[in-house]
Specification:
Layout: H1 3-11, E1 14-19, H2 22-25, H3 45-48, H4 51-56, H5 58-73, H6 79-87, E2 93-98, H7 104-107, E3 114-115, E4 124-125, E5 160-161, H8 173-185, E6 188-192, H9 203-210, E7 214-218, E8 231-233, H10 237-249
Parallel strand pairs: 1-2, 1-6, 2-3, 6-7, 7-8
Antiparallel strand pairs: 4-5
Helix pairs in contact: 1-10, 6-10, 8-9
The structure holds ligand BV8 and zinc ion.
């Protein structure tokens, strides 16, 4: 592994890890821009992840998110998630920022995860914004392509919506401000498994670069960040991240 990264990690008091869908790929969760697997081949995910799509066809969109929630329930965190959780034990001020809507970071042991794009597991009422509690016995796994009427809020009767941030919706203020501050003040910024296409999330890498952090990209494919990060490591996060943690701190 590039000595600059290992030395920077060992010396750092403030480290930020910023993840995208690629970090969950090795857990079997389809990334956002890969061809959608299963019966959703005919849909472009970014066409479904919008308020208009939900207005136009609520059962289609709610069914898509429930299918994805079922995939996550049936998946396990991978070695990349676990390495990120282990990293936090070696760094005085560690911040994990994710664009992912799954809970695999938390299930790998990470805490205080900054979810910029919301969470699949936390749908809420469109009117009173109460979080929806899934009733006992609800099927956890929905076959891809199933349309499902979104449930109604037990408190006010309005429609329940997926707990994610759609295109055209503002990212949540608190996680966003915390993420921007962490990117501004960190010594090392690890950008893992993201195509770095979605804003404002992708601008966090630019903030860290401008602040002079040692910036690292972990991705088997090239992205626009390749030319501006300190080091671009071409490889899957499930292999690269455990190696980084092992070389920097001796991974158990
Ligand atoms: C906002 C939740 C403004 C939903 C997501 C026109 C109209 C409106 C807005 C816009 C517009 N044009 C542009 C915008 C801005 C828009 C945007 O950025 N669009 C892009 C596409 C150009 N942004 C927004 O709309 C944001 N809000 O701007 O609000 C505003 C301001 C004021 C007031 C009101 C509004 C909100 C964006 C959030 C959208 N929601 N997700 C859901 O999940 O269904 S975004 C979606 O993309 C996912 O969250 C995903 O995480 C995110 C980023 O994608 P990636 O994570 O990078 O995944 P991707 O598949 O792209 O790439 C995977 C990568 O992994 C690849 O590089 C691959 O090589 C790599 N990989 C694969 N395997 C591995 C791996 N890496 C490592 N290891 C492996 N094994
Ligand atoms: Zn309600």
């Amino acid at each position: 592994m590039d000595e600059r990264i290992i030395n920077a990690l060992r010396a750092a008091t403030r480290v930020v890890v910023f993840t995208g869908a690629g970090v969950s790929a090795e857990s079997g969760i389809p990334t956002f821009r890969d061809k959608q697997t299963g019966l959703w081949e005919q849909f472009d995910a970014s066409e479904l992840a919008t308020p208009d799509a939900f207005e136009r066809d609520p059962p289609l969109v709610w069914g898509w998110y429930e299918w994805r929630r079922g995939l996550v329930l049936g998946a396990q965190p991978n070695a990349g998630h676990r390495a990120i959780a282990a990293m936090a034990d070696h760094v005085p001020y560690f911040t994990l920022i994710t664009q992912n809507v799954d809970d695999l970071h938390e299930r790998a042991g990470s805490s205080d995860v900054l979810h910029l794009h919301g969470e699949l597991s936390r749908p809420y009422c469109e009117a009173c914004r109460r979080h929806y509690v899934y009733p006992e016995g609800i099927p956890d796994v929905l076959p891809g392509g199933t349309r499902l009427q979104p449930p109604r809020c037990t408190a006010c009767g309005a429609r329940i919506r997926p707990g994610v941030v759609w295109f055209g919706e503002r990212v949540p203020e608190l996680p966003w401000v915390a993420a921007r501050e962490a990117a501004k003040h960190c010594e090392v910024f690890l950008c893992c498994g993201t195509s770095a296409l979605v804003q404002p999330a992708a601008s966090l890498a630019d903030i860290a670069i401008a602040a002079g952090a040692t910036t690292v990209q972990v991705n088997p494919n090239p992205t626009d960040l390749d030319t501006s990060v300190t080091v671009a490591i071409r490889g899957p996060s499930g292999i690269v991240l455990p190696q980084l943690v092992s070389e920097a701190w001796g991974y158990p």
